Amino acid sequence: MSARERFDHEIQAIQNDFIELCNRSIETLENSFEALFQKNLEQAQQVIIQDVEINRMEEAINDRVIKLMTRQQPVATDLRRLIVLLKAASDMERVGDHAVNIAKEAIRIGNERFITSVELLEDMCYKSTEMLRQVVEAFVEENMSKAKEIAEYDDEIDEMYGDMIKHLMQLSSVVPENISQITYLSFICRFVERCADHATNIAEYLLYLKKGQRFDLNH
Amino acid sequence: MVELMIKNEKAKATIKTPSPMTSEHIQTVEKNTVVQTKGFNLWYGDHHALKDINLDIKENEVTAIIGPSGCGKSTYIKALNRMVELVPIVKTNGEINYRGRNILDPSYEVEELRTKVGMVFQKPNPFPKSIYDNIAYGPRIHGIKNKKILDEIVEKSLRGAAIWDEVKDRLNQNAYGLSGGQQQRICIARCLAIEPDVILMDEPTSALDPISTLKVEELVQELKDNYSIIIVTHNMQQAARISDKTAFFLNGEVVEFDQTDKIFSTPRDKRTEDYISGRFG
């Protein structure tokens, strides 16, 4: 194997690690949603525990990228790819953190019944995981048009987030005795909305990787 | 209230004052072209070694020439001071204009050209003479005999090449006694002694250790304030570190010539990207 082939091989290996991190983070996020909606507190605990592994995976990617940068001194697309992997891994690790935050809120809500319909929140959760899955697909395929479509999803989620928060604020004056759960649900909405932002960031990184220019897809 | 109005008036006045030149403005000012190569071709016998070269070298900039072995980069810089003519089978056409005058014109005195366009080679090549005589050699050829003036030139050139402090107490010792890195800086000082306008450097650090390389690189950065520098290098990181513009040569052609930042981050041509990323060459 030539030096260049070894370099390509190592970049591919880091990219595979990144995809594995993505899958793990998305799965953990889905588990946190399930724990919330099905009031499965045991599962919520598991989400918190699983985050340790997600953090470890991100650190391993960082170490591999730094090592490769030091040894190979990459330029142009190679350099952009490594920087993008470093940044995208950080975004995916944050998705794992949001899953933990949601799991903690689920534990706080406990077995209390929801004081309002959470259908819109469920939709938000579904859309955000869909967005994350699609951005991973776009990344693997290096599909720029798919990356741009993801930004449109983000606008929808932002709108849903706005509606949900408005609804919860109104509710706080109607049932002030339930302010705790209203606060927990508001936080959860925020965490879900942030996950969608991370997906948009990764879509932006993909465009940067391909074009060498920065794009702002999150308007 | 009155005071507030005054403040507002002052603020308005401040806004109306034209803003001073920022570094951004200064960067947009186009520098003068010192060497302009127009449709230049060169043959070694039947071998077409340089094909239709068009390059504008700007004043007070470092221009790096990169490319695989045999791409014509050394031939190109040797054409800039007509050293390439020492090879008898060389034929050329096109133009190389130094400060607006075609150096390929037979009426152009080669001695005059080489006074203005100095050269530093891959391997340090001091003369087997004292450090002092190495530097004073060029000025003496140009007729300077006055010891005081020569002393001044020697000191100024050695300072300019960032080696004065290392050799000032042993100017009469043979230059061969210096380390490779010091010898190379002596050669640069020797080049500065004739007060050139352009300095050509053909892989000037390829025979040096990393510390000496760093010193020469720092020197290049300092020299560009007063000289225009064209450097051929096989070391891609060196080109990225020290040059303002980079030209990528391949098979005798200029594939891409642009700002160094652009070449090493987002090159336009796939062949440039493949070369700088180590995919061939």
What's the short version?
The complex is a heterodimer of chains A (219) and B (281). Chain A has 219 residues and is mostly helical.
Descriptive report:
Chain A: Homodimer. Chain A: Keywords: Cytoplasm, Phosphate transport, Transport. Chain A: Residues 20-105, 121-205 form the PhoU domain. The complex is a heterodimer of chains A (219) and B (281). With 219 residues, chain A is an all-alpha fold. Chain A has a single domain (3-211), classed as Methane Monooxygenase Hydroxylase, Chain G, domain 1, CATH 1.20.58.220. Helices cover 86% and strands 0% of the residues of chain A. Chain A has helices at 3-37, 41-72, 76-109, 119-141, 144-174, 179-211. Chain B is of the alpha/beta class and 281 residues long. Chain B has a single domain (29-276), classed as P-loop containing nucleotide triphosphate hydrolases (Rossmann fold, 3-Layer(aba) Sandwich). Chain B starts with a helix and ends in a 5-residue tail after the last helix. The chains are: A mainly alpha (219), B alpha/beta (281). Chain A binds chain B through residues 3-4, 7, 73-80, 212-213, and chain B through 236-237, 240, 264-267, 273, 276-279.
Number of domains of chain A: 1
Largest sheet of chain A: none
Total beta-strand segments of chain B: 10
Provide mean pLDDT of chain A, rounded: 95
Q: Care to count the β-strands of chain A?
A: 0
The number of helices of chain A is 6
Oligomer state of the chains in this structure: heterodimer
Order of helices and strands of chain B: HHEEEHEEHEHHHHEHEHEEHH
Shape of chain A: elongated
Please indicate the count of domains of chain B.
1
Which structural category do the helix and sheet elements of chain A fall into? mainly alpha
Termini of chain B, distance in Å? Answer: 73 Å
Question: CATH superfamily assignment of chain B?
Answer: P-loop containing nucleotide triphosphate hydrolases
| CATH C-level category of chain B | Alpha Beta
Weakly predicted, low-confidence segments of chain B: 1-28
Helical residues, percent of chain A: over 70%
Distance between the termini of chain A: 46 Å
Mean of residue pLDDT values of chain B: 89
Family (chain A): Belongs to the PhoU family.
Function (chain A): Plays a role in the regulation of phosphate uptake.
Protein name (chain A): Phosphate-specific transport system accessory protein PhoU
Keywords (chain A): Cytoplasm, Phosphate transport, Transport
